[in-house]
Amino acid sequence: MFARISLPFASLGSILPSRTTSAASPRKREDNWVDGLRGVASFVVVTGHICTAFVPFLHNPTAREGQGPLFFQLPILRLVVGGRGAVAIFFIITGFVNSLNPIKNARSNNTSVALVNLARSTFTRSGRLVMPTSVAVCIAWFLAQLGAFHMASRVDASWIRLQAHPPDPTWGQALFKLFRALTLFWHSGPGEYDGTHWTLVYFLQGSFRVYLALLAMMLLKTGYWRLITAFLYIWCWSTGDYIVGINIFAGVALAQLQVDLGSRATNLLPKPVPSLIILVGLFVWSFPQTNPHWAYWSRTMRDALLLVIPEKTDISRYWVSIGTSILMVGIFFSRNAQRVLTNPIFNFLGRVSFPVYLLHNTLMRTLLVWMAYWRAAATTPMTDAQGNLIQLPKPGGMTFVFILPIFYAILYSVAYAWTIYVDPLCAKAVDRMKRLMFKEEEQPQTEKPVPLTAVVA
């Protein structure tokens, strides 16, 4: 039994360079530190949602107004609830990854190659986002029909309780809602069976905005690439597009730096400077989600930013976007930070980051709830004398010390299994659709050379 449980973690050795496998290993990406950062971001998303469910007061900068902060409310340490910044990192990476190769080709004047590859990636990347998401939605839908979220509907953690979808009254209505969740969700959202999937709609929209911007800039000179990207960033900033716009175009700007500087970037600045930039980014990312006026440091940040953002916008989203952009700039110029993020452990976290994001909320509403509340559910009646539902009280902190490592182990084991069994099937389905729908590229015919003997004066 223990051998089976440890199997996914033993597989970490498979990503070491010295390991030989029977199958051909995929070509290593040049900027593998991005994968490591993606893995860290997905881990922060999970911890943030767990803390939001069970210790939501960590979103405040202090325990109460006028009091001092708790340990995990201090700047940088409070990033255990930094899920918003982790989502911003995902958007920055989306802009970076989607634009890196087109920018390389454009810089090399391979415009036709860039446009062809852009058309291909628009199709394949979109399919590889939509298909796994649809599978995860079907799993959550099926569990909801089985009543697997029943205990979650009774817990005192409101973040979990509000997402505990009950079984639909009839199978006909359930199938209709499933169809709606697989189609109209991509237009209006949020996900009915998994509320955390709301960001995936914005990832798809953000990707297409990057593709459109790349198409518009493909024939520009290098200096105008930077100018137009800066204009798009400022435009998104001034229009309140703080979730998608300012982050994806920060990623596009970072991709241009990568193409222009390459490996020289880690040698341009003195060693302490990138570390200082990273610390500044982490501090700015620490801006609290709620009640920033309770602490002097966050109140000062709030008052400073109110001068340069549109009215009636979420100031915390702006600050975490700025902080994560600064963080990625620091990592970009830091050889040591990139070396850490290219560690096999972080590469593993990056490879399973998407299934972790897709599945963590479903496992929280089932596995984590069952482990945390089973004792209270066994001893607490469903309703009181007036027929009101009795909420299950959360267990003490020591309970989470024991159950959270088990939960994370199972979550990452399931995510690893997803990458083995589900992701390849989705990739094959997308490739099959591409072969079916794409027309073959016609090679330009070259004229036969005229024999020299035919040329006469």
SSE diagram, text form:
Layout: H1 2-10, H2 33-54, H3 83-107, H4 111-145, H5 158-161, H6 171-182, H7 198-217, H8 222-238, H9 245-261, H10 272-285, H11 296-305, H12 315-333, H13 335-341, H14 344-351, H15 353-379, H16 397-437
Helix pairs in contact: 1-16, 2-3, 2-13, 2-14, 2-15, 3-4, 3-7, 3-9, 3-12, 4-6, 4-7, 4-15, 4-16, 8-9, 9-12, 10-12, 12-13, 15-16
Q: Which H/E pattern describes the elements?
A: HHHHHHHHHHHHHHHH
Distance N to C terminus: 89 Å
Query: Sheet with the most strands?
Result: none
Gyration radius from CA atoms, angstroms = 25 Å
Let me know the number of strands.
0
Q: If helices are DSSP runs of H or I spanning 4 or more residues, what is the number of helices?
A: 16
Q: Estimate the mean pLDDT confidence.
A: 86
Structural class by helix and strand composition: mainly alpha
Label the overall shape: globular
Low-confidence stretches: 1-31, 450-457
What fraction, in percent, of the residue positions are helical? Answer: 55-70%
β-sheet strand percentage: under 5%
Compute the number of structural domains.
1
Keywords: Membrane, Transmembrane, Transmembrane helix
GO molecular function: acyltransferase activity, transferring groups other than amino-acyl groups
InterPro entries: Acyl_transf_3_dom, Acyltransferase_3
Pfam family, one: Acyl_transf_3
